[in-house]
Amino acid sequence: MEEQIKQIQKKFTDEINEISDLKSLTDLKVKYLGKKGELTIFSKQMATVEPSLRPVIGAKLTETRNLIESSIIEKEKTLQEAKLQKKLESEKIDVTLPSNKTKVGSKHPLNRVIEEIEDLFVSMGYDVVDGPELETDEFCFERLNLPKGHPARDMQDSFYITSEYLLRTQTSAVQARAMLANKDKSPIRIICPGKTYRREDDATHSHQFNQVEGLVIDEDITLAHLKGTLEVFMRKLLGEKTNLRFRPSYFPFTEPSYEVDVSCFKCAGKGCNLCKQTGWIELLGAGMVHPNVLKMNGYNPEKYGGFAFGTGLDRLAMFKYGITDMRYLYRNDIRFLSQFDQMDV
Ligand code: FA5
């Protein structure tokens, strides 16, 4: 019997050496130590063993059981460690690997133009101010010398929300706000970029567009100041060789008023399809602030004068970047927008 126990022990040792996973180890444990396990069955046969041999056989059985149990515990530990090691290996992150490049966007052409203009005017001592897009009839028209029923209101087709509120058609609405807000009626030097809205929609007109307004109020302001300012403005933005042409025009809030054209930068004024063979492109409305506007907004026209101008930023962006249809600026088409990426480098 002792010999048989030895055989079991040897068989167990051979088998455990072959095992490489935890499931097989559990099966092996059941095979030898389970209720019907090989060693358990042997223990149950102790009753048949001659009494004088029982202590020796019993001791041998216990010794073998202990050996099997400790071998299984030992093996289990080894297998658990190997499993953990394998898991760690598979989850290892190489922090030195190059990462996937995340595509970052770039500045929208309109924002580029706005920022450039803001930088320029701030460098000349102007403040950048803001006004509401949902504006009152009072500020968009009345305080700009355009009372209700004035025929010049027809020049701007508007989106009215109620009879008193509308989406502003021009950033000129900020002129009256700035004058009224300036309680001590001291000189003013501001620009106001912002969104404007009109009922228009074609390749060069959008229902939503952007304007920038300029307003200067001070003593002894003349047309020469306006011309000089607009020359600096356009030359910095469109190129040092840009020339300006002032044509008489009409705006109710300025007197005299002008449409200001810039020399076509594509043909340098010679005439091409962009400027419709004229050599000039219309870009701005401007003029000397009307005395009625000064008076209505608390400034004494005997003491103060001023100039104002307003230009469409979308059109400026189109000319600056050679964009052929204004609606591209609002379509959010990545193929269009990504062309401006390289300008950031
Ligand atoms: C005005 O809006 C005046 N407020 C400008 C002004 C300010 C004159 C201060 C005198 C003193 P006008 O309607 O011409 O003027 O518009 C000015 C510019 O806005 C135009 O030259 C054009 O560039 C742009 N613009 C006008 N309508 C649209 C539109 N629907 N889509 C895109 N740009 C437009």
Structure in words:
The chain has helices spanning 2-18, 22-33, 38-44, 54-90, 109-123, 137-140, 173-181, 223-238, 291-296, 313-321, 328-331, 334-337; strands at residues 127-128, 134-136, 159-160, 165-167, 188-197, 208-218, 244-251, 254-263, 280-289, 305-312. The chain has two domains: 2-89; 109-340, Bira Bifunctional Protein, Domain 2 (BirA Bifunctional Protein, domain 2, 2-Layer Sandwich), CATH 3.30.930.10. The longest helix has 37 residues, at 54-90. With 345 residues, the protein is α+β, with helices and mostly antiparallel strands. Helix 2 (22-33) runs antiparallel to helix 4 and helix 5 packs across helix 10 (313-321). The mean pLDDT is 92. Adenosine-5'-[phenylalaninyl-phosphate] binds at residues 170, 172, 198, 200, 205-206, 209, 211, 213, 251, 254, 257, 283, 285-287, 308-312, 314-315.
- Supply the helix-strand structural class: alpha+beta
Q: Can you tell me the CATH architecture of the largest domain?
A: 2-Layer Sandwich
The H/E string reads HHHHHEEHEEHEEHEEEHEHHH
Distance between the termini: 89 Å
What overall geometry do the principal axes of the alpha carbons give?
rod-shaped
The main sheet orders its strands as: 1-5-6-10-9-8-7
In round numbers, the mean pLDDT is 92
Radius of gyration: 44 Å
Helix percent reads: 40-55%
Q: Find the count of extended strands (DSSP E, 2+ residues).
A: 10
Q: What name does CATH use for the topology of the largest domain?
A: BirA Bifunctional Protein, domain 2
Sheet-strand content, in percent, reads 15-25%
Low-confidence stretches: none
Each distinct ligand: adenosine-5'-[phenylalaninyl-phosphate]
What is the CATH superfamily classification of the largest domain?
A: Bira Bifunctional Protein, Domain 2
